[in-house]
Amino acid sequence: MLAKKVTVRLENGLQACPAALFVQSANLFKSHLTLEKDGHVANVKSIMGVMSLAPAYGESFLLRAEGEDEMDALAALASFVENEQMNA
């Protein structure tokens, strides 16, 4: 299992469209992926889970990946969130 603390650099945070693209990206991987913020954990492959935690610009959360492609998944999803412009 790998984990990385990431800080949201998307202007609108992980809301609506960015959250949907984030979840779409997560679903390209086989690994189990979770997001942990303020003691709450969500499945990164669930739009409702991601939006329920609503990570905003400047907030940090822990991204965890466990599975055969965990390194690639963690790198791709961390890059998505830490990038200042949304690149899908």
From TrEMBL:
Annotated HPr domain residues: 1-88
Protein name: Phosphate ABC transporter permease
Domain of life assignment: Bacteria
